[in-house]
Design brief:
The complex is a heterodimer of chains A (142) and B (262).
Chain A: E1 8-9, H1 12-15, E2 19-23, E3 26-31, E4 40-46, E5 51-57, E6 64-67, E7 74-79, E8 85-91, H2 96-109, H3 119-139
Helix pairs in contact in A: 2-3
Chain B: H1 2-28, H2 33-37, H3 43-51, H4 55-97, E1 112-120, E2 124-130, E3 141-143, H5 154-162, E4 165-169, H6 180-190, H7 194-200, E5 206-214, E6 217-226, H8 241-260
Antiparallel strand pairs in B: 1-2, 1-6, 2-3, 4-5, 5-6
Helix pairs in contact in B: 1-4, 4-8, 6-7
Classes of the chains: A alpha+beta (142), B alpha+beta (262).
Chain lengths: 142, 262
C-alpha cells in the first residue's frame, strides 16, 4: 500500500469564517480560534496502529487523548483540553475512499464524547468534516 | 529595579537555606565538651555557642523562608513583570482592534479598552491586566462553567467556556432612564443578568473576546470593549489577508507574552 506523507495545505482564511449563531437568545458572532483551525491534512497507513490515519496540523502542539476503544471502526485523537480533532484512525479493512467516507459519516452524526461537546470542539468537528468531504480523494492512497 | 528585586529574593532564599543548614548541623554535630572547655575554639565551635540559643526559632524560620522563596519571587517579581509586559502589549494592540474616535487626542482611553481576564480558582475570570489607567483597578470578575454554559457570566466568562472568538455590537445604551426592555436586551447580549446591568450600568456597547491558551490549556480571555456601538473594527472577523494575519497574531502574541513572563 502506498503512503501519502505529504501535507495538503489548507487555507485557514477560507476555513474559519465568522458566523452569527443564537446564544442566550440573541445572535452572537462566533469564529473558531486560530488554534483550532488546521492548516494541513494528510492521510497514510499507520503501521503501529495498523489503521488508515488522517492527521490534521495545527499551529500549537497540544497533547492528545484517544476517544473510542481499539475495537471501534473509528478512533479519534483529540486535543486534551480543547477537544479539537488531531487525528482520525480508521480500521484497515476500510481504506481509501471508504475510510474517508466512513469518517465523514461518523463525524456528521455528532459528538464522540458522552460529555457535553464544547462549542469550539463542535465547530472544529464540522470544519474537519468539511475538509474530509472536499479533500477526501487527495487523502486516499492510490 | 525588577532585576534587583529578583536577585535580592534569591539571595534571601539562599541565606535562609544556609542558616537552616548551619543551625541544623550545629545542633546535630556540635563540639565536644573538651573543645568547649578549651580556650582556643575554632569557627564551628564559636558558631555553635552563638547559634545554640537561637536554633529553636532559626531553623523553622529558615525552612519557611526557603520554601516560600519561589512563591515570594513569583508574586513580587514575575507576576508584576508579566503584567507590565502585557500592558505594553495591550497598548500596542489597541489601534489594531478599535476604530472610529479612538485615535482622536481627546478620547479617554477607557472608552476603548482591552482587558485580559485570567482563569482563577473557583471558576472565576478575574481582571489580570487592563489597558489605560482610569479603570485598571476594577475588581469585576465573571463566573464561567464549561459544563453548564448558561450559568456563565459576562462576555469573558462565556468566551472562556465556549473557547471560541466572540463578537457583538450595537448594544443598547444603559443610562439612568433606560427602560426595562433595553436593560433586558443588554443583559442578553452581554451575558449578564438584568439586575447586574441595572446595578452596574455598564458603558460598553460593543464587545469582542479572544480566548488565550497556554499549551492548549485555557489560560484566560482578551476582551475588547468600546463605548461606541461599532467601535471595534472587524478585527475579530478580518476582511483582508493582512488583517487576518494581524488578527491571528492577537492570540499568539498573548500566549507568547504570558509564556515568557512565567
Amino acid at each position: 500500500m502506498n503512503e501519502t506523507h505529504q501535507w495538503i495545505r489548507l487555507d485557514r482564511n477560507k476555513l474559519s469564517k465568522p458566523e452569527n449563531i443564537p446564544l442566550n437568545g440573541v445572535l452572537i458572532g462566533v469564529q473558531l480560534s486560530p488554534w483550532d483551525v488546521p492548516d494541513g491534512v494528510k492521510g497514510y497507513h499507520d503501521k503501529e496502529e495498523d489503521r488508515f490515519r488522517i492527521d490534521f496540523r495545527y499551529s500549537d502542539s497540544e497533547s492528545e487523548k484517544r476517544v473510542g476503544s481499539r475495537n471501534d471502526e473509528i478512533n479519534l485523537l483529540v486535543g486534551r483540553y480543547s477537544g479539537k480533532i488531531i487525528s482520525i484512525l480508521v480500521e484497515t479493512e476500510k481504506t481509501g475512499v471508504d475510510a474517508v467516507m466512513l469518517a465523514v459519516e461518523r463525524l456528521s452524526k455528532g459528538s464522540f464524547n458522552k460529555r457535553r461537546e464544547p462549542l469550539n470542539a463542535r465547530r472544529n468537528r464540522e470544519l474537519v468534516t468539511g475538509v474530509l468531504r472536499s479533500k477526501g480523494e487527495k487523502l486516499t492512497p492510490v | 529595579m525588577l532585576t534587583a528585586a529578583i536577585y535580592s529574593t534569591r539571595l534571601m532564599t539562599v541565606i535562609a537555606f544556609l542558616v537552616t543548614a548551619v543551625s541544623s548541623v550545629t545542633l546535630a554535630v556540635g563540639p565536644t565538651a573538651a573543645s568547649l572547655a578549651s580556650e582556643e575554639r575554632d569557627l564551628i565551635d564559636k558558631a555553635y555557642v552563638y547559634l545554640l540559643p537561637h536554633v529553636a526559632w532559626l531553623t523553622p524560620l529558615g525552612i519557611i523562608i526557603t520554601a516560600a522563596g519561589p512563591f515570594i519571587e513569583r508574586s513580587l517579581v514575575r507576576v508584576p513583570r508579566q503584567r507590565a509586559a502585557l500592558k505594553k502589549c495591550l497598548d500596542e494592540l489597541r489601534p489594531h482592534i478599535f476604530i472610529g474616535e479612538m485615535n482622536r487626542a481627546n478620547t479617554p482611553e477607557h472608552h476603548y479598552r482591552l482587558t485580559i481576564f485570567k482563569k482563577c480558582l473557583g471558576s472565576r475570570a478575574r481582571i489580570w491586566v487592563r489597558s489605560g489607567i482610569a479603570t485598571e483597578k476594577s475588581k469585576v470578575c465573571f463566573r464561567f462553567d464549561t459544563r453548564r454554559v448558561e450559568r456563565c457570566q459576562g462576555f469573558a466568562g462565556t468566551c472562556l467556556a465556549h473557547n471560541v472568538r466572540m463578537g457583538v455590537e450595537k448594544l443598547p445604551c444603559i443610562t439612568g432612564d433606560a427602560s426595562d426592555q433595553e436593560i433586558q436586551a443588554y443583559a442578553s447580549m452581554a451575558f449578564v443578568t438584568p439586575e447586574w446591568a441595572k446595578k452596574h450600568r455598564p458603558s460598553g456597547r460593543c464587545f469582542a473576546a479572544y480566548p488565550i491558551r497556554r499549551n492548549g490549556r485555557p489560560w484566560g480571555v482578551l476582551v475588547a470593549d468600546s463605548r461606541h456601538p461599532e467601535g471595534i473594527q472587524s478585527g475579530w472577523q478580518p476582511a483582508t489577508t493582512h488583517k487576518e494575519r494581524q488578527s491571528e497574531m492577537i492570540e499568539i502574541l498573548m500566549a507568547a507574552v504570558i509564556g515568557a513572563g512565567r
